[in-house]
Amino acid sequence: MNIEQTLSIIKPNAVKKNIIGFIESRLEQARFNIVAIKMIHLTREQAEGFYAEHEGKAFFDRLITFMTSGPVVVQVLEAENAISRYREIMGATDLSKALAGTLRYDFADNVTENAVHGSDSVESAEREIAYFFANNEIFSNY
Ligand code: RTP
Ligand code: MG
């Protein structure tokens, strides 16, 4: 079994829509275990550090302004093949390309305000989880 952990963020637009529980319910139905969770309002510095790979891109400022516009839920999901499976459930970054039944199809407002984040590789998952959580805040089942 390839058990992985991935970092998930419920972004400010989804928190404002009052659908945190709805998203968590879908994730639990899909057999993800929530093994760490907190709500935070990111500072600009925190958001810029988290999205450092996108610095210099045309959408960077818009992304940082959005991600600091309200509180987010950051969490660690654990499951078999969690990284790719969670990205499938999120759907495409661009709302117009997201498949029906995905979280972004249902809850994204546009390409920037796309409701959820998920790590895109084992390396980024490790970096992103450590960015928000200490080891003793993660309650792995394995
Ligand atoms: P994420 O990192 O948030 O899970 O999303 P992703 O991998 O699907 O997309 P990525 O390319 O990493 O982009 C990070 C976030 O930047 C915003 N974005 N805006 N053209 C645009 O205006 C644009 N492109 C990306 C989105 O919020 C995206 O999730
Ligand atoms: Mg990404």
What kind of assembly state do the chains in view correspond to? single chain
User: How many H/I helices?
Assistant: 7
- Give the SSE string: EHHEHHEHHEH
Uncertain residue segments: none
Estimate percent helicity. 25-40%
> How far is the first residue's CA from the last residue's CA?
11 Å
Query: Any guess at the CATH architecture?
Result: 2-Layer Sandwich
CATH fold label: Alpha-Beta Plaits
Which percent range describes the beta-strand content? 15-25%
Question: Count the strands?
Answer: 4
CATH class: Alpha Beta
Tell me the overall shape: globular
Structural class: alpha+beta
Radius of gyration: 14 Å
CATH superfamily: Nucleoside diphosphate kinase-like domain
Sheet of most strands: 4 strands, antiparallel
Describe it.
- With 142 residues, the protein is α+β, with helices and mostly antiparallel strands.
- It has one domain (3-137): 2-Layer Sandwich (Alpha-Beta Plaits), CATH 3.30.70.
- 39% of the residues lie in helices and 20% in strands.
- The chain has helices at 12-16, 20-29, 44-50, 60-67, 82-90, 103-107, 122-132, and strands spanning 3-10, 33-40, 72-80, 116-118.
- The chain has a 4-stranded antiparallel β-sheet with strand order 2-3-1-4, with helices on both faces.
- The longest helix is centred in the last third of the chain and has 11 residues, at 122-132.
- It binds ribavirin triphosphate (RTP) and magnesium ion.
- Ribavirin triphosphate (RTP) binds next to strand 4.
